[in-house]
Amino acid sequence: MRRDDNFDRQLWETAVLFELRNALRSGDIWLADSRRYREVETTFAPVAAVRTCARLAVPFDTDTWLQSRTATLAQKHQSVGTAAVHGGLPSASLKDGVLHLDRLEKTVPDGADTLVLKLYGDMDRGKDSIQKFTQARRPGPMRGRSISDQR
User: Fold this and answer.
1) Which of 14, 23, 42, 56 could link 28 by a cystine bridge, Cβ 3.0 to 4.6 Å?
2) Does a structural domain hold residue 96?
3) pLDDT tens for residues 57-114?
4) Domain count, the chain
5) Has residue 135 been placed in a domain?
6) What is the CA radius of gyration of the chain?
7) How far apart are CA 114 and CA 127, in angstroms?
8) Does this model's pTM top 0.70?
9) Domain encompassing residue 74
């Protein structure tokens, strides 16, 4: 943080502000009365409030929830296996205990090529008209690079 063996205060302050911004954005630090940069834990609903709210179907016992999900997964697995054995899966077959899936064909809707060409044509016609836009903060035409400079 030195320039020519002297302490560069302006450079140091800029670096501190950038790091402060990054820490606020990541949630590593927070501001007590801020909506945007408040502590992450304050965004969660209290468990007591969630337990009393009938609209929120949240399981509170993880073991019961895991057992329920495991049973559902086993049932779905069994139904897919039964359908595969009986040839009930579309675009799939079971050979020697291995499930083979057919490749999906690339489908493009009719008229998609025409739409793409129309959009590119509209972009080319609109590149000059974008210069007519104005900024809300400052009246007058936009300044800076034009759209043709960005290509």
Assistant:
1) 23
2) yes
3) 778 888 988 999 999 999 999 998 888 888 888 888 888 888 888 888 888 888 888 8
4) 2
5) no
6) 30
7) 20
8) no
9) 61-101
Angle 133-139-140 (CA atoms, 0-180°, nearest 5)?
55
The reply to whether 86 falls in a domain is: yes
Residues contacting residue 134 through CB under 8 Å, at least 6 positions apart: 140, 141, 142
Q: Are residues 67 and 34 in the same domain?
A: no
Cα–chain center distance at 63: 30
Report how far residue 149's alpha carbon sits from residue 76's, in angstroms, rounded to the nearest whole number. Answer: 56
Is 70 inside any structural domain? yes
Residue type (1 letter), 27? G
Place of tokens 């959009």: 119
Token reading at 151: 């290509």
**Nearest by Cα to 20 from 9, 10, 31:** 31
